[in-house]
């Protein structure tokens, strides 16, 4: 299967295509197309906002951040070659997953293997951080949310007879 | 965890990410009459679920997870979204400067309302930037260490990580009010919310291994039911019968449609098996018999063509989106020694063992195997090779048909493409089993099932489940080119 990953490179406004040494590259995989495209849109906007804010405030280590985003369609089969490309060709200093668990979990293995830091923004699968010590997660595990849900239901709402429907 | 707060879970249901119709679950939940419904999922599954629950007149509040978070959910569920409560990461009514700024700036830039996904993506970049700054360099090791020790206030709370790289922060509880997400509560209980910090250890997870083995054997039984028919055809006629996978899918369709129409799976399964079996014989008579004298690849090409034609026919007749059971069938779960197993899984194992056992034991089975082993000798004992060939196609196809019904039960979904994966995986299995060797095929099926189950968990990060099957085959063929079991 050929990889149809669509490469979208954003550079900070007014900065243009700066020479590689002048920017710090951060790589992203996000579902820009496919069933999760709506979440991909949200996460990309959130990412761009953060990068713009950081660059307007002077960047990092005196350099601007440069985003490299690839479309993984929330599919593991796409995220693995994307991870390899981000590390090998684009020479990012760090990867961020703006994608779902399947795609994130696969890419996490590649980042760990290459000893490159990788942050999962909102994927919930427990195995993601178990890929190794280079992988982090800024959102909650499904398990943690479940515990919070139990407290919410039983203690805060006083609901005792519950039906559970899980994906 | 539930029992800590005095919660009784009356019933538990599972659905797949492809599900949009929850009629059966909704009906059952109504009968359960719970005080509350806890449902995980994403906006595109939770939206339909919540609106269908509401449509059925169920008043109990729905508690969800952050997958619901966003305006999309409210749009899909409509009025039914009102009062839905979720655990998530972004508080829309936050008094924290970072969150207020983010929500305002995001809407200004993107033109739509901020949600959990946007805030989490924003958070991840902020953490990354802070870590690079603190590391003072762009060396990966330095950045990693800086992330590990980061403590940063952002839109989703104060971010810091534990030893496993899991975030430790407060959980935001949000409720839908007047078409928007709003503050309901915040849960900040570090002890309760502590994510697991240790990696898996062998002894603690012995149950996991047993469960994985069990799941592998269940899959292996299914593979066996599909592959045995294929291996029989190959040993008789030296034809790689790809269209076998089409018969498997057809079994799924017939079983599902008959079950939905009659309400009885017990009636539908043998009918599916019989009709698929008869079609298998027809395929032999009409497609393979006329070209038996041609070179082997002629039959192979015919078989591939037939398989593609069948897939397209399913698409035309039954539609591209797949069908599901209208009533949950064999979906009861049992907890045995801490492991959960579904009724359908028990039926698959028992059914496969029975079918394969009968195929081996009966007089027909003996004749059938005799002709596989040595057609000429069998004929000299008065066994008609032609009849046995028909029988062989009938039994092989019927087995595939039943396997199709099993798989449709497992996933509650029959799609035109459901034969796709079995079509090549069954080939993989019969090669592993030593082409034409029935016992070898059975063993290879079970072995592959278990290998995949473990592989999905432990090497699934690098390799797709289906790739594992082929990597396994390549390794075996490198060591034993004749397959795991070969006559010679």
Structural class of chain A: alpha/beta
- Summed up, the domain count of chain A is 1
What is the C-level CATH assignment of the largest domain in chain B?
Mainly Alpha
% residues in beta strands of chain B: 5-15%
Quick one: biggest sheet of chain B? 5 strands, mixed
Largest sheet of chain A: 6 strands, mixed
Low-confidence stretches of chain B: 200-204
Through-space gap between termini of chain A: 28 Å
Q: What's the structural domain tally of chain B? A: 2
Give short descriptive properties of this protein:
heterodimer, A: 167 residues, alpha/beta, Rossmann fold, six-stranded mixed sheet, 4 helices, 37% helix, globular, disordered N terminus, B: 488 residues, ABC transporter involved in vitamin B12 uptake, BtuC, 2 domains, five-stranded mixed sheet, two-stranded antiparallel sheet, 18 helices
């Amino acid at each position: 299967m050929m990889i149809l990953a669509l490469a979208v490179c954003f550079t900070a406004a007014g900065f243009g295509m700066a020479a590689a040494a002048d920017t710090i590259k951060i790589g992203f995989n996000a579902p820009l197309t496919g069933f999760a495209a709506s979440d991909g849109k949200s996460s990309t906007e959130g990412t761009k906002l953060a990068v713009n804010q950081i660059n307007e405030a002077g960047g990092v280590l005196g350099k601007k951040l440069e985003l490299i985003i690839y479309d993984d369609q929330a599919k593991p089969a796409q995220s693995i070659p994307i991870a390899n490309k981000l590390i090998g060709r684009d020479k990012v200093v760090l990867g961020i997953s703006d994608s779902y668990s399947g795609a994130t979990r696969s890419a996490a293995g590649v980042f760990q293997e290459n000893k490159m830091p990788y942050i999962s923004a909102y994927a919930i699968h427990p195995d993601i951080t178990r890929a190794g010590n280079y992988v982090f997660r800024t959102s909650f595990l499904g398990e943690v949310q479940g515990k919070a849900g139990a407290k919410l239901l039983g203690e805060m709402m006083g609901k005792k007879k519950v039906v559970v429907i899980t994906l | 965890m539930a029992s800590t707060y005095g919660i009784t879970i009356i019933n538990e249901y599972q659905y797949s990410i492809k599900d949009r119709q929850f009629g059966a679950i909704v009906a059952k939940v109504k009968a359960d009459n719970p005080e509350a419904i806890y449902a995980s999922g994403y906006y595109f599954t939770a939206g339909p679920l919540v609106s269908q629950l509401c449509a059925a007149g169920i008043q109990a509040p729905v508690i969800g997870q952050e997958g619901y978070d966003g305006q999309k959910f409210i749009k899909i569920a409509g009025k039914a979204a009102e009062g839905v409560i979720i655990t998530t990461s972004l508080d829309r009514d936050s008094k924290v400067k970072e969150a207020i700024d983010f929500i305002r700036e995001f809407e200004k830039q993107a033109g739509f309302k901020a949600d959990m996904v946007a805030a989490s993506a924003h958070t991840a970049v902020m953490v990354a930037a802070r870590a690079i700054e603190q590391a003072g360099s762009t060396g990966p090791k330095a950045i990693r260490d800086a992330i590990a020790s980061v403590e940063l206030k952002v839109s989703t709370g104060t971010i810091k990580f534990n030893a496993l790289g899991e975030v430790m922060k407060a959980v935001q509880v949000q409720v839908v009010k007047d078409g928007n997400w709003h503050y309901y509560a915040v849960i900040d209980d570090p002890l309760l919310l502590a994510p697991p910090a240790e990696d898996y250890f062998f002894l603690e997870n012995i149950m996991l291994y047993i469960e994985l083995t069990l799941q592998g054997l269940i899959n292996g039984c299914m593979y066996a039911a599909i592959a045995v028919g294929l291996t029989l055809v190959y040993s008789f006629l030296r034809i790689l019968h790809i269209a076998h996978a089409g018969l498997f899918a057809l079994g799924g369709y017939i079983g599902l449609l008959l079950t939905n129409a009659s309400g009885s799976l017990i009636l539908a399964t043998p009918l599916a098996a019989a009709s698929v079996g008869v079609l298998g014989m027809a395929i032999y008579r009409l497609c393979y018999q006329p070209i038996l004298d041609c070179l082997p690849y002629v039959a192979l090409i015919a078989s591939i063509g037939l398989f593609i034609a069948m897939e397209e026919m399913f698409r035309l007749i039954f539609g591209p989106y797949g069908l599901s059971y209208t009533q949950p069938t064999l979906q009861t779960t049992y907890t045995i020694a801490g492991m959960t197993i579904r009724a359908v899984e028990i039926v698959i194992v028992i059914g496969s063992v029975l079918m394969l056992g009968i195929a081996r034991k009966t007089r027909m089975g003996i004749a059938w195997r005799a002709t596989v082993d040595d057609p000429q000798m069998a004929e000299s004992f008065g066994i008609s090779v032609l009849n046995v060939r028909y029988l062989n196609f009938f039994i092989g196809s019927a087995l595939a048909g039943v396997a199709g019904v099993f798989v449709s039960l497992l996933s509650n979904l029959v799609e035109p493409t459901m034969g796709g994966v079995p079509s090549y995986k069954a080939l993989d299995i019969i090669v592993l089993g030593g082409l034409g060797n029935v016992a070898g095929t059975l063993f290879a099926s079970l072995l592959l099932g278990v290998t995949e189950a473990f592989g999905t968990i432990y090497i699934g990060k690098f390799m797709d489940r289906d790739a594992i099957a082929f990597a396994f085959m390549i390794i075996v063929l490198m060591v034993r080119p004749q397959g795991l079991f070969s006559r010679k």
